[in-house]
Every structure is written in C-alpha cells, then in structure tokens.
Amino acid sequence: MTGTGERSERFWATTCPADAAWRGRQGRSRRALAAEQDRAAGGPDRRWVKLDNGRQARASVALKLLPRTRRIRAYLRWSDNGRSPTRYLGEVGFASRAENLREGWRLAHQKGLLSPPAPKPDSWAKSPAVRSVMRANKNRDTGPERRLRAMLHARGLRYRVNSRPISGSRRTADLVFPRLKIAVFVDGCYWHGCPEHYRPSQANQQFWHTKIEGNKARDAETDKLLAAAGWTAIRVWEHDVPKPAADRVETAVREARG
Fold this sequence. Notes:
single chain, Endonuclease, Chain A, 6 helices
C-alpha cells in the first residue's frame, strides 16, 4: 500500500482497501467529526451548499466502500428540513481517509456544488476570511485552560469543567469546585480587555470597543453575582504562567477545605 497522498487504486485489484482509507474512528464526538470535515474542506466557510429561497446548509463528505468493485465512492450530504439530500461526487483512491475526504471536497468544488456564504449586511466581519478566523477562536478548551486543568488534576484536585456555578444563571465558569463554592475563569487577553496585552482593533473600532467594554462589564457583574451567592471567583489571564496560577487556585481550595 502506498503512503498517504499517493493514489492506491492499482493495489485494489485483488483486495479491498484498508479501513483507514475510508472508515472513520468509532465513538468520536460530533465536534471532532465537524473538525475533520473543516480540515478536509479547507475551512468551515468552504462547506456550504445553496438551497432554494436563498437558504444555505453546511454539507459533509461521506465515504462508502463498495466491496464488490473494491472502490471507494465519495458523496456530498447535507440536511434540509428533515431530509438528507445526497450527491454522488466520484471515486476516490488514496490510502488514507483524510486524503480521500480532501479529494471529495475537491470534486464538490469542481462540480460547482458549493457556495461559501457572503457576510451578512449587519455582520462585523468584513470578509468571509475574517469571519472564519473569528469563528475559530474557542470559547472553551483553550490551551491555557487545558494546561491549568492538567496541573490542578496532577495535584489531586477535582473539579467540573465549563459549568454554571449559580443555579438559574447562564454565567459559565471554566473550572468549578461546587462544594467549596470556587469558580475559576481563564480569560483571553483580547476578548476580556487585558490591561497588559489588549490592543484595540484598527478596523471597525467603535464596534470592537463596545464589544470588549461589554465583556469587561459582564465579567465584573459575574464576580458580584458570585460574591453575593457566597462564591469565590478567581480570574486567570491566558498570559499568566501556569504554575503560579495553579498555586492561586490550589491555595483557595485548601483554605476553603480547612
């Protein structure tokens, strides 16, 4: 069998392709599946198909093995009001699922089946590229969050992730110690207006100023709501060194237990 990126059809004359050429790993989350499709398509804004009445839907490429012919076929699928339309794209013949998905998306573009959405009239993004970049910014499971969680877990501390400390409130904390009433927030420097690293955007300045100031006001209000309910709020900046940040959280936990 050839390596990833090389056509493998000539090896399939007498045997079926390996599962790695078409079958995805079982048990993956919907988020992981979406990320796989985004990578293969070249970004989330390259997965849209046009529907009637100006509507759009996000599509996926599916791979299907035909054992009798020993060939892998690629299909474009999407959802439309409970239906699941499918368009045949063609045969693909690479040794890996990732390459075959990319080939499927290439065929979909070649056939003119895809249509990236234009920015909405009231959108803050000036182009699909900008909108795609901003969508890629995570609101959970960021690198700083994962590093802090790993360090605290290694110290024997257990917590809830991405949880709402106060019942009936939509405010969410990155780490929560429910019994001790401690909520930890890992704040991004840009989105939360870090006094050290925040740099105002040069484009659409008024919108972003209002947006960031609103985030800061919401953070302050959240801290007040938590304090009124008997909670301790700990805020960690994404630029903070992980060990001192973990020390702060651990100290608060030990004191609460003591």
